[in-house]
Amino acid sequence: MPQVIPVDDAQVATLDECVDALRATGFEPRDDESLTHAAGQLRRLGNDRDFLGDLLVEELAARHREFERPDNYGPQCIVLSAPGAGFFLRANMWPAAEDNMLKASGGTSFSFGLPHDHNFSFLTLGYFGPGYWSDYYTFDHEAVAG
């Protein structure tokens, strides 16, 4: 289930510094110390208010990445680091409910309103915009057919 991990840290880290710090220790979400460390590194990356916009402009100009993008991610997902040490970083861009794109195409392509689960643990950081919300449920995995 989700939990809020408050991190009060004004230091700024580049994407490379964040990835290096996480690779040095790995990421084990069931270990409180590892989780707190990763949350701190993600906060420092989030404190760099230019990195994501700069990266997107750079990517559009270069039109390639040094590593393969997983096929199961949609266009709203930008892979920031290759998998390694049990983690990888990605940025997801979700339209707000009032955005024309969402009104025109509907929420299905963004999995809005579609129950789903993840087979991995993750940390999130609100970088820009109003953020998102989810409803969380538990269920018996063994009882699910399909």
Keywords:
mainly alpha, two-stranded antiparallel sheet, 4 helices, 2 strands
Mean pLDDT: 86
Shape: globular
Low-confidence stretches: none
Structural class: mainly alpha
Structure write-up:
It is globular, with a radius of gyration of 17 Å. The protein has 146 residues and is mainly alpha-helical. The longest helix is centred in the N-terminal third of the chain and has 15 residues, at 32-46. It has a two-stranded antiparallel sheet. It contains 4 helices and 2 strands, in the order H-H-H-E-E-H. The chain has helices at residues 15-25, 32-46, 51-62, 100-105, and strands at 77-79, 90-92. Helix 1 (15-25) packs antiparallel against helix 2 (32-46).
Topology of this structure?
Blueprint: H1 15-25, H2 32-46, H3 51-62, E1 77-79, E2 90-92, H4 100-105
Antiparallel strand pairs: 1-2
Write a brief structural summary:
The chain has helices spanning 15-25, 32-46, 51-62, 100-105, and strands at residues 77-79, 90-92. By secondary structure, the protein is mainly α. The chain is globular, with a radius of gyration of 17 Å.
